[in-house]
Amino acid sequence: MPLYEHVFLARQDLATAQVEAMTETFSKIIADGKGAVASHEYWGLRSLAYRIAKNRKAHYVMLNIDAPAPAVAELERQVALNEDIIRYMTVRIEALPTEASAMMKRGERERERGDRDGAPRGDRPDRGDRGDRAPRGDRPDRAPRAF
Fold it and tell me: Phi/psi at 10 (nearest 5 deg)?
């Protein structure tokens, strides 16, 4: 059977549990069409590049699908009818990915890195205390600009 990646964006005012319920509903549509959802990833509530239908953020979800074309067509029809979905895209792929997507790796990398050197940003030595340099208030006034 052909393999697909299906990504959809759900409205920002939905709860995570509602988005997971939608994912289960879409997985059932694929299963009813004699296909299977190999994996799904919830990428979280992320900012959009531009406003879509008055939404500045959206819940991102990706499904890796192994299903015949009619099942995917039915999935897209149901997604298009759903008012909570603001965008979707289905792409045919050659092979299912064996590792996590780039979006999931990005989140793991940020969690690993955390705060640099374990210090909060305000307590870094290059911030706040100016040391032996004069405070900003002791600087002379700038010369007026000539136009």
Answer: -105, 155
Question: Is residue 10 classed as helix, strand or coil in its secondary structure?
Answer: strand
Q: Which of 8, 10, 18, 14 is nearest to 53 (CA)?
A: 10
List domains and CATH numbers for the chain: 3-96 (3.30.70.60)
Residues 9 and 49 sit within 8 Å (Cβ to Cβ): no
The pTM assigned to this predicted structure is: 0.69
Q: What is the pLDDT of residues 66-97, one digit of tens each?
A: 999 999 999 999 999 999 999 999 999 988 77
Mean pLDDT of 53-59: 94
Average pLDDT, whole number, for the chain?
84
Give residue 42's pLDDT.
Answer: 93
- Stated as kind and residue range, the H or E segment containing 77 is helix 69-81
The pair phi, psi for residue 54, each rounded to 5°, is: 65, 20
CA angle 111, 63, 84 (to 5 degrees): 95
**How many angstroms separate the CA atoms of 24 and 57, rounded?**
22
What lies within 8 Å, CB to CB, of 67 at 6+ separation is 1, 2, 4, 30, 33, 34, 35, 36, 75
